[in-house]
Amino acid sequence: MFTDATELQFDLFYADLKRTERNDATLTSKNQIYRLLRPGATYFNLNPYDVLLINEDASIEDIRKQYRRLSILVHPDKNPDDRENAQKAFDVLKKALETLENPNQRARIRLIYEEAKARTDKAIAEKRKILKRQQDQEGAPQPLLEDDPDVYRRLVWTNTMKVFAEKERKRRALMERELEDKKRAHIEEEEAKAKRKMEVEWQKNYEDTREERVTSWKNFKTKKDSKGRLGKGGFRPPKHRAESRN
């Protein structure tokens, strides 16, 4: 499932995470503010259970108790020397609580956990097949690292983070597309309004100048008729030409 290099990188990351969790266990204001605002917190904080440092099977009563416990530590009034960051951390905790208090959101998050577990189990099953083929060829049993409960838990946790991140990226992409669609629709609407306004103004101008055009046409006809009027009796004599003498 992982290459040796990938496993090493993950081990280092996981060890660092565990150190952070051990520091978090002391529940100091400084540690909690750092945890909630540390680099990468944008994605770490997508999981409200991780934000509140509580198991995903916790009851809503336990979730609220844990929120009160943590929110006291990061409350801006308790951290006058770092009020701005304390407020940001407090808002992160509040958002996590509001998310988990919503039954629909809890159901959505439960599906994310189930998807992460399914991905983990599928990857382990594929690796087990590969090891079995190797065992059949070499005759030596191959232990599976993921059978260790602690390793399995960390893999599920990693895949849970991945699923949260994937869904967040999709959500943002969808929002961007919707925003672009709204902008395009707004531009088209404004262009249509401008066109309708021009048509109305043109029609109004056409109506306002109707009398002027009619008068101009009548004057033109009158002048034309006066120039083309015939002589008395309706006969116009030919013009006289002087005879030329040789």
From TrEMBL:
Coiled-coil region(s): 165-195
Family annotation (Pfam families): DnaJ
Keyword hit for Signal: no
Cellular component, GO annotation: nucleus
Signal peptide from the UniProt entry: none
PROSITE patterns, per the entry: DNAJ_2
Region annotation (Disordered) ranges: 203-246
All residue ranges annotated as the J domain in the record: 47-117
Protein name, as recorded: J domain-containing protein
